[in-house]
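Below is one record:
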Amino acid sequence: MSAEAAPGVHNEIRDGVFLNTVVQGRHVNLRLPREIDRALSGLPPCSSTFTGRDAELATLLAGLAPGAAGQSPRVQVVAGLAGIGKTELAVQTAHAALREESWFPGGALFVDLLGYDPDHRLSPDHALDGWLRALGIPAEHIPPGVQDRSRLFRSALAALARAGRPVLLVIDNAAGYDQVRPLLPGDGVTAALVTSRDGLAVDARLHDLTALGPRASVDLLDHALREARGGGDTRVSDAPEDAATVVRLCAGLPLALRIAGALLADSPGRPLSSLARALEADHTRLRRLHYEDFAVRAAFDLSYRRLDATHARLFRLLSLNPGPDLATEAAAALAGVDDVEAEELLCDLSRAHLVEQAGGWGRWRMHDLVRLYAGEQGNLPAHAAADHRDTAQDRLHEHFTATLRAANTHLAALLDPPSPRFADLAAALAWLDAERPNLIALVTAAPPLGRPRATTSLALNLSHFLSRRRHLDDLLDVTAAALRTFRERGDHAGEAGALNNLGVTLRKKRRFEEAIDAHTRVVALRRRLGDRSGEAVALVNLGVALRDVRRFEQSIDVQTRAAAIFAELHDRHGEAKALNNLSLALREARRFEEAIEVLSRIGTVFRDLHDLESQASLLNNLGAAHTAVHRFEEAIAAHDRAAATYAELHDRHREAMTLATLSEALVKVGKLEEAIDLLTWAGTVFRDLHDPHSQASTLNNLGIALRKARRFDEAIAAHTRAAATYAELHDHHRRGGALNNLGLAQSRAGRFDEALDSLSRAATIFRELDDRHNEARALANRAQAAERGQAPPD
């Protein structure tokens, strides 16, 4: 049976029943007009401000290209956060695909399913009705049910494909598989491009869209202004710092950037600094990112309202973590659930693109604007009470505090056995590395996130790790936060502990006079408290700082006093640490044999107490002392053992320091290439750890080894860089040493005038520092250079 067909359309129905305009059939064959008006594709226009998505566009096009079916699914799904630019990317891709004449000669069909708007969501049967009409099917021949419409639509697509006129389907804003499934082709030839805020469970290639980078964000803002106001609007290029602030506060979200551009375009006299100030406050940013019908908060609302109560609660609680991301176990602590349940909830939120994976599996983060939105929702009175936010915050602090203590048992010298929470030291360090930003943020957070006791506990327990990894700025921040808290609480013992850590940090930052002042105050405070052990610890640290400013005799006196107090207290470990530091001061004072004798006295203490870190330090100091008295083989053996121990402890910084010191003995015994290799590696470590002072010392030693190897030009370059770095760091004594070595290399290279100048400057520096020994060496080297160059010495 056949129906009266519209001109150019032939329907042939077999093995079925025709009931008025309802088609129920097993096979539906359509013969469609030869040409379909491409205007019926209805693709939205491309935005002229599209930027930053070249790689994503190319990937999507590759998946849509004819012949790609054997390599990837013909359905491509772009998923991502609300406002991330999914629709624009899909439209741009569709237009680019249509420009390839042989790809989709049948045109493109576009539909916005409005899947996240419950009041206007488009059902699949309505979408199919519109598409069938666009294909030329008269209304009276379109069946009413979604299943039959889908069959008819797929048959039409297959017919077009067989006729050499395949169509591209663009399905925007799909909320779920049920909404999009009836619209998908079934012929294996027709391609579809779908956008969704959720990862759809369809036979498709999934593409997760992330935020724009800073440069692309600035470009988008600039293009938006120039498009709206003409090429003469140069506000973005005229104020790059303000533009960077605006895009940072928009966090790479294209919707937010376009709103910012529209707000600026509305007021051509408004500088970017004005908008930057308006967006700076967290509590009003989402309200200000609004322009006419476009609003970031409204876009997030549509995703949030789809969550059930359990997912919505976790979503709100995640905003309580002040760091950039968090682990599954931390999220479990926040929610008060086990790790398995937390992981399931986070996976669901990730599929909804309200959270995303951060690095490896098991870590999660929120887009900055989503975090603000989650915090807004969580702080609404009804939610704050129901979620028990204060209790959740306490659970998070407790989780971090307990786990940090467990990690510290693997770092600390004398705690035995270590906590079973971590398999070994490497696992403990891996956790600390991953959680460092969260721990720092918790310590330094302002109320109400801050908890005084948690602040101080975390700060003190973090100090060893931060010092080992040389996160010195972080260490300064957390120590200052703890110090403020102790003083506010009137806790003098706690204040002394924090002040001691502050002094150690200042010394490592090479702020020596401030460090000496801090440690001097700690000594006095510990003495007032009657804390003899704490006083001795403070004296040890004071002695180290005094040695750094070359006040060697004072350092020797202070370390001797510290060792005596520890001996009175029968504290072998404390006494040995004081004597180990005493040996360094003795060596710097050129009392080498005394230094070796002191180290020999404590040689077994650290080993007996299983303090590997201090044992390695002692061996390194012993090696340096042996080198000074020309016992090179003993020095090499000691340094080798120290370096191996530091490697076992995963302490790259001190391993590099040890190997750099070892190189001095290797040079003395003629193992130049081995020394050069070690110094090159050590210099790379110091560069990676942002320690320019140690890097300069390594360059200086490298220059010596290169000069001995007769690689004079390389030696000159190394010493020149070392001297320049020492000058920047205001280390005048070591700059004098680098200039002395530079002069020697220049002399060996036959560059005598340069050598005389370098050696003269070295001698002047040592004279000003009252270092007669090194001044004499520089002058002697200058005389030799003058003789070699046949120039009269001074």
